[in-house]
Amino acid sequence: MPKPKLAVYWAASCGGCDIAILDIEAKILDVADFFDLVLWPCAADFKYKDVEALPDKSITLTLFNGAIRSDENLHIARMLREKSVVMVAFGSCASDGCIPGLANLYSLDEIMDYSYKSAPSMESGTKTMPQPKTQVEEGELTIPTLWNTVRTLAQCVDVDYYIPGCPPQSDQIAAVIGAVIDILKNNKPLPPKGTVLGATEKSCCDECPRERNVKKIREFHRPYEIIPDPNICLLEQGIVCCGPATRGGCGAKCVTANMACRGCYGVPPGVRDQGAKMVSAIASVVDSTDPEEIEEIMKGIADPVGTFYRFTLADSFLRRTQK
Amino acid sequence: MSQVTLIIDGKPITVEEGTYLYDAMRELGIEVPAPCRYPFLAPRPVCRLCVCEIYEGEGPSKIVTSCNYPVKNGMVVHTDSQIAKEARKTALINLIQRCAPNRTLAELSLDMDISHPEWGHEHCTCIFCKLCIRACDELVGAHALSFQKMGKDDTTPIKLDAEKCIMCGACAFVCPTEHIKMEDDCDRALSHRDLRLGPNAAITLSFRQAVPNVPRIHAEDCIHFAIGGCEVCSEVCPKECIHYDDQDKIEEFDVGAVIVASGFNDFDPSVMKQYGYGKLPNVVTALEFEKMNNAAGPTGGKIVMENGREPRSIAILHCVGSRDQNHHKYCSRVCCMYSLKFAHLVKEKTDAEVYQFYIDMRAAGKGYEEFYQRILDEGANIIRGKGAEIVGCSRDRCKEGNLLVRCEDTLIGKFREVPVDMVILSTALEARKDAKELAHTLNISTGADGWFIEAHPKLGPVSTTTDGIFLAGVCQGPKDIPDTVAQGGAAAAQAMKLMNSGEVLLDAAYAVIEDSLCSGCRICNGLCPYSAITYDENTKISHVNAAMCKACGTCVAACPSAAISARHFTDDQIYAQLEAILS
């Protein structure tokens, strides 16, 4: 019997998700042993045309990480969707848009202009802009065109399952892969479509070891401004922690390391907009009724969009700014 | 401890070994003078007036100071023998020769047939018994007194360290010759303090009809709690009932309903400097005047001034603190009528003239207008004009006619000054200082003036926005006794209705926390205006008490993990509505 085929792909991503897969240590040998790897650009040299040549639904599992923000991203996503039985949005970029999704706060022109012209790190004078097509002696070279809007995988193709996290925690990846192998080996039923794998049903607070009390916030601090008490809820100490509006499963690693949850595991079940939920929750516990004082307290939160929508802007109700 | 038997003036008595002879004599009812003895200080014979003649075993008699001489078995004591009398007389002459005339020693010399005592000093009545210094050191613990060198013209050998003195008066109390006196700046028969409703001593019975009728220590007035000394009350208590380490205890009760009847505070008129309350004598508040009229009060129901005499004229100032833009804008509602009642009491008990200074006479209510007419007929002077100022106009603060009330009489359009002996300030009713705190505890609300807000002014006048909590009396707003009784009855009936049915009908609309989604972040805990949310320390998740929830949705909006849903208004419903509108 031929081995089931596995594809891992990165679109608009940093590569951290691929590293996280490699980070499952010896279990990677089980993966190699059980699956026939057909595509993994980060780890091995495969050609797109070989994958394109495969019959439809011949890849059993595709772990797709990265957001969709170019024609190339979309092309590969659609191609892998056709070839795969199970399509998994792997990691925060594919699931929620993640950091690339914050590009939706600007137009493509603004981004290109800043990145290639006005950024202080750019050498002045050259102002070279990438061109979609370039004529050279050997012929015409093309590079993929960036979109004005960054999209999640599910906004572009049909997605079966989600594994959240930036990146997903290795122990959770190992557990999911173990479960997949078990299902395939023993012919077990798949979980319902749309299930979030490798995460819990409760919020990050459920795993947080800190002591929690009734919240009354009179002042917000950025992490470098105070040394927080390691045993008390960070939000109570005025550090914006997105844990309450973030799905659990990561093991509360950040808060254990005295750093507030940034929200990478995305929305908890039932929540449609992580940032809106977080804003609503924080607004409820600010301990003042005086509008001017509230204004002053709220000034303590630098970059509210980047704080509350850091990982989910592309998948939120806001999705992008309109000018 | 073993018992010893002795004979005093021919009478046998058995007492415990170690008892002082003086105490054994007192048990038999035999009194000898002992001015330098104070029961709560160890005996230290100075005056030697308590001397007795004693026979112990064989041998001649001895003269001893009975106050510090321990009894012995078989002892025979003569307190009244010739030798004892002579010794006592010699001791008294010694005392007289060192001090100035004073009542204590003068009376004793009369008793001992000294017809012409030769006083040895012109000014100082101190007999150097040291009781004052010892009381200050050993009982009070203030260490404010000491002896100083005294010349012939000095008046006292006692030196006072005014920094350390706490003005307790213990030294004056123990002084046998009234050498030390506590003096008021004028000789008052009655002070404002006596008229207050609160305690006048550090340990008192709450009031005469209190149940249980036991005294209480008021720590803020008590020497023991101030500096750790005294403890005289515990020494005199034969049943050892005084416990200084007793603390307030918090008792918890499970109840079906709560009726809030927390009442009001009396407006403190000392903030209105123009009335001189607390500074001018004989300016009293309505409540203080009420206490003066109490037959069980400090004056036995007599209307008197601080000097103990009956006033010839009394002014009653209405609207002190109420109907006043600077203090309370509302009308306190009860003052007009009780002020008229005061006029009636004054007319009934004294011959004094009564002047009422009022803005508007509010005599609404059954029989009230008629009562007003009756007071007019009784001859009270009714002046329409708010009392503007009270000034003292005599050099002697305690003289009659010292007070001058100034006002504008708006009916005759003239400025008036009325000299009176006494002024009664009809002070405003104001919300209790802790009303906001109580409101927070009970989850009810207060208005701008601090009175608790009823559920509806017409349809729910005794209930509140929180189920099972009802209001009665002035805590909801100024009202007189008939209205208070009526509201109290209504509140009791509402509470009974709730409890008698044994079950409550709840609205189906309330918020629910899904256990499997709640991770106990506690964001919702402080938000519920009805205290319906509790946090379970064991399961580490929060719960909504459906019986208390009013489905306001505050927690639903705040819940960051969508674990709370309002049963009647879910997110899905709202999204569906939005989609329908936008499609």
What does it look like?
The complex is a heterodimer of chains A (323) and B (583). By secondary structure, chain A is α/β, with parallel strands linked by helices. Chain A has 3 domains: 5-100 and 148-186, NADH:ubiquinone oxidoreductase-like, 20kDa subunit (Rossmann fold, 3-Layer(aba) Sandwich); 108-147, no CATH class; 204-315, no CATH class. Chain A is 31% helix and 14% strand. Chain A is built from 12 helices and 9 strands. Chain A has helices at residues 16-22, 27-34, 48-52, 71-83, 91-96, 98-101, 108-118, 170-186, 253-256, 274-285, 291-298, 304-308; strands spanning 5-10, 36-39, 59-65, 68-70, 84-90, 133-136, 139-142, 146-151, 161-163. In chain A, the strands form 3 sheets. A 5-stranded parallel β-sheet of chain A has the order 2-1-3-5-9, sandwiched between helices. In chain A, a hairpin with a 2-residue loop joins strand 6 (133-136) and strand 7 (139-142). In chain A, 41% of the residues are buried. The mean pLDDT of chain A is 92. With 583 residues, chain B is α/β, with parallel strands linked by helices. Chain B has 3 domains: 3-111, Ubiquitin-like (UB roll) (Roll); 256-505, FAD/NAD(P)-binding domain (3-Layer(bba) Sandwich); 511-582, Alpha-Beta Plaits (2-Layer Sandwich). Chain B is 24% helix and 19% strand. Chain B contains 15 helices and 25 strands. In chain B, the strands form 9 sheets. Chain B has a 5-stranded mixed β-sheet with strand order 2-1-5-3-4, sandwiched between helices. In chain B, helix 11 links the parallel strand 14 (353-358) and strand 15 (381-384). In chain B, helix 10 (335-349) packs parallel to helix 11 (368-378).
